Every structure is written in structure tokens, then in C-alpha cells.
Amino acid sequence: MLVMLALADYADADGLCWPSVDKIAQKARLGSRHVYNILRRLRADGVISVETRGGGRGTATRYRTTKLDRPWAG
């Protein structure tokens, strides 16, 4: 729940966001390894999708929350 709230805090109106794992961990007050595991589970459960994978330093992964999580989205 804390990771989803952190993602929602960074997301735009379409549910797209690209915070670093370290930023998510800091906001959720969790360790980075724990956040990686939670993000993997959220992707497997279909709660979030990965739009673009990060490719190293300075290239962030883009996440999108599913439409089901955004009742305001048609």
C-alpha cells in the first residue's frame, strides 16, 4: 500500500510516473530491496505496468497504474 501511495503521489493524471526506486523507498520509508520486490509483485498482479524500462544511471523506469485503480479515468 505504501509503495502504491508513493507512486500515486508522483503520478500524473494518466497514472504515469517515473520516480527512482530510491525516491519511492524514501517516501514509503522502506528499503530499496523491499521496494524492488513490491514493484515486481505489483507488476505480476497487474496493478502497475512498466511503460519503459530504465537503462542505468539517469534513465528512469516509467510506471503506469492500471485503469482499474483510477476510477476517474473513463
In terms of topology, how is this protein built?
Elements: H1 2-10, E1 16-17, H2 21-28, H3 32-44, E2 48-52, E3 62-65
Antiparallel strand pairs: 1-3, 2-3
How would you describe the overall organization of this protein?
Helix content is 41%, strand content 15%. Helix 1 packs across helix 2 and helix 2 packs across helix 3. The longest helix is centred in the middle third of the chain and has 13 residues. The chain starts with a helix and ends in a 9-residue tail after the last strand. It has three helices and three strands. A three-stranded antiparallel sheet has the order 1-3-2. By secondary structure, the protein is α+β, with helices and mostly antiparallel strands. The protein has one domain: Arc Repressor Mutant, subunit A (Orthogonal Bundle), CATH 1.10.10.10.
Uncertain runs: none
Strand content: 5-15%
Largest sheet: 3 strands, antiparallel
How are the strands ordered across the major sheet? 1-3-2
CATH class, please?
Mainly Alpha
**Count of individual domains:** 1
Head-to-tail CA distance between termini: 24 Å
Class from secondary-structure proportions: alpha+beta
Give the assembly state of these chains. single chain
CATH fold call:
Arc Repressor Mutant, subunit A
- What's the total count of β strands? 3
